[in-house]
């Protein structure tokens, strides 16, 4: 099969969060299974060019229709750790992807509507006819819309679209301008509740809704979150749309790339280790302490790695810092915030705790430090308000770092409480789960993990190793996606 991903991120060249990891890891797995996979991305000025091999211009003069004219683009091509990627670079005064950031501009809707249009135009003009076009999140929600309303009539009638939602919170709310720009025009037609009209704002179009309505298949990134999206508020107003399209909606659990996230071969960590040679874990703890100037004491290290965002339960993360340092543990945080108020809050905490011997807060994005934290910490806390899948708990498990998570979304599908899980025998349990979104609930999980470390170190080690035995690689999800692609292309 021939699969083309159209996405706004692909790790490590463009990574703001988990989406990048998934686009890269899934492509690699599907390619390893003998299929042809290509990835189309925007050519951001701030992406990590050092991760691209053999970058060259593959298509010099791509004219993408935009309003009444066209924008001249070049398409560059290169290999990102073995994956063939095409980067779209527009030459216009809008400087769509020359903003020094991936997201967060006022005209994000226009930027990614243009990217969606350019990606389709590139496929069309260069005569690429994939069996499956795999789109991700609202940024590419217009791809299936334009494919079925426009490009289908120009010889692209056999392409099938799989649309994966990684986060329902951001949906791409736009005005009618977007219809004029992309050439879809016909306002009456698209402002229909069965098409793109937002379910709650009658004056707006919803790009993610467009993706759901027009794709051949829609999935989110874990079975439990798929259920939550239909039956609770975490789909942020799209529940009804998912209900209407339930026959083509499901959840496929993400994997993590064990070539990148694996303590046995990880080049970012000073001491490699496995279940059988576990001493390296303690040596990495020492290395992490040295690196972050924490005191070498007989205490576990609790960690948080992730975006500092309302979704991630920042209030509980904040509480976890103080709970840990007051309860015989150390705390390490690596996070970046896009929201100014959250950034300011954690910058203040960092300043306040700067000289604390048991705590280090690192604000910003640091891939290499993330690896050392997963390897050196004993416990990883994931107190999310909602979590479509969550990669950090799965990475933690692979590194023998016991997850303490809130029982939502994909966290429910991957972490099984040591003391209370009903569905797994004690030797298959791998962490701690709490349910309520409050400090007491968080403490109930964290307290059990910290106590086990102090008072039953042998049992703690067994729990760590039980987590390491889980296979959350791309193997199973890769198989599921290939089966899905195959089903779609015969539809
Ligand atoms: N400051 C920092 N420095 C270095 N590395 C950092 C970092 N902050 C985060 N990371 C890394 O980024 C990834 C984050 O994974 P998450 O599952 O938390 O994704 P996120 O919420 O962004 O994405 C959404 O998409 C993913 C993928 O589908 C879903 O798992 C998730 O639930 C959904 O919210 C991990 O690899 C983590 O190590």
TrEMBL record:
<dbReference type="GO" id="GO:0005978">
    <property type="term" value="P:glycogen biosynthetic process"/>
</dbReference>
<feature type="binding site">
    <location>
        <position position="15"/>
    </location>
    <ligand>
        <name>ADP-alpha-D-glucose</name>
    </ligand>
</feature>
<keyword id="KW-0808">Transferase</keyword>
<dbReference type="InterPro" id="IPR013534">
    <property type="entry name" value="Starch_synth_cat_dom"/>
</dbReference>
<keyword id="KW-0320">Glycogen biosynthesis</keyword>
<protein>
    <recommendedName>
        <fullName>Glycogen synthase</fullName>
        <ecNumber>2.4.1.21</ecNumber>
    </recommendedName>
</protein>
<dbReference type="GO" id="GO:0004373">
    <property type="term" value="F:alpha-1,4-glucan glucosyltransferase (UDP-glucose donor) activity"/>
</dbReference>
<feature type="domain" description="Starch synthase catalytic">
    <location>
        <begin position="3"/>
        <end position="242"/>
    </location>
</feature>
<comment type="similarity">
    <text>Belongs to the glycosyltransferase 1 family. Bacterial/plant glycogen synthase subfamily.</text>
</comment>
<keyword id="KW-0328">Glycosyltransferase</keyword>
<dbReference type="GO" id="GO:0009011">
    <property type="term" value="F:alpha-1,4-glucan glucosyltransferase (ADP-glucose donor) activity"/>
</dbReference>
<comment type="pathway">
    <text>Glycan biosynthesis; glycogen biosynthesis.</text>
</comment>
<dbReference type="Pfam" id="PF00534">
    <property type="entry name" value="Glycos_transf_1"/>
</dbReference>
<comment type="function">
    <text>Synthesizes alpha-1,4-glucan chains using ADP-glucose.</text>
</comment>
<dbReference type="InterPro" id="IPR001296">
    <property type="entry name" value="Glyco_trans_1"/>
</dbReference>
<dbReference type="Pfam" id="PF08323">
    <property type="entry name" value="Glyco_transf_5"/>
</dbReference>
<dbReference type="InterPro" id="IPR011835">
    <property type="entry name" value="GS/SS"/>
</dbReference>
<feature type="domain" description="Glycosyl transferase family 1">
    <location>
        <begin position="294"/>
        <end position="452"/>
    </location>
</feature>
């Amino acid at each position: 099969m021939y699969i083309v991903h159209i996405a706004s991120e692909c790790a490590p060249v463009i990574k703001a969060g988990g989406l990048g990891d998934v686009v890269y890891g899934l492509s690699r797995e599907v390619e390893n299974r003998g299929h042809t996979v290509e990835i189309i991305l925007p050519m951001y000025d701030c992406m990590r060019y050092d991760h691209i091999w053999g970058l060259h211009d593959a298509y010099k003069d791509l004219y993408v229709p935009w309003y009444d004219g066209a924008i001249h683009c070049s398409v560059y091509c290169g290999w990102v750790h073995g994956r063939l990627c095409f980067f779209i670079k527009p030459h216009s005064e809008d400087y769509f992807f020359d903003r020094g950031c991936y997201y967060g501009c006022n005209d994000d809707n226009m930027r990614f509507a243009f990217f969606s249009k350019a990606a389709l135009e590139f496929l069309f003009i260069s005569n690429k006819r994939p069996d499956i076009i795999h789109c991700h999140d609202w940024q590419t929600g217009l791809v299936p819309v334009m494919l079925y309303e426009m490009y289908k009539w120009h010889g692209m009638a056999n392409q099938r679209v799989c649309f994966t939602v990684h986060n329902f919170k951001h949906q791409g709310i736009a005005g009618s301008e977007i219809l004029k720009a992309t050439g879809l025009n016909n306002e009456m037609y698209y402002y229909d509740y069965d098409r793109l009209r937002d379910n709650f704002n009658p004056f707006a179009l919803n790009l993610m809704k467009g993706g759901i309505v027009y794709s051949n298949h829609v999935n989110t990134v874990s079975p439990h979150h798929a259920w939550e999206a239909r039956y609770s508020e975490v789909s942020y107003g799209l529940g009804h749309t998912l209900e209407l399209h339930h026959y083509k909606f499901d959840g496929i659990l993400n994997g993590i790339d064990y070539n990148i996230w694996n303590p046995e071969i990880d080049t970012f960590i000073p001491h490699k280790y496995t279940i059988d040679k576990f001493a390296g874990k303690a040596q990495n703890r020492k290395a992490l302490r040295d690196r972050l100037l924490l005191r070498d004491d007989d205490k576990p290290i609790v960690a948080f790695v992730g975006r500092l965002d309302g979704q991630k339960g920042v209030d509980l993360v904040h509480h976890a810092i103080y709970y840990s340092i007051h309860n015989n543990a150390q705390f390490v945080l690596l996070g970046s915030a896009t929201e100014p108020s959250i950034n300011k809050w954690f910058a203040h905490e960092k300043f306040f705790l700067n000289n604390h011997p048991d705590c280090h807060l690192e604000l910003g994005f640091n891939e290499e430090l993330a690896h050392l934290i997963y390897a050196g910490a004993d416990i990883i806390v994931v107190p999310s308000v909602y979590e479509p899948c969550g990669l950090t708990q799965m990475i933690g498990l692979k590194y023998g770092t016991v997850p303490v998570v809130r029982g939502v979304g994909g966290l429910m599908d991957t972490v099984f409480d040591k003391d209370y899980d009903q569905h797994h025998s004690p030797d298959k349990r791998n962490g701690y789960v709490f349910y309520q979104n409050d400090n007491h609930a968080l403490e109930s999980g964290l307290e059990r993990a910290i106590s086990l470390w102090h008072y039953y170190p042998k049992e703690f080690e067994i729990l760590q190793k039980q987590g390491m035995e889980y296979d959350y690689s791309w193997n199973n999800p890769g198989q599921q996606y290939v089966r899905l692609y195959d089903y779609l292309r015969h539809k």
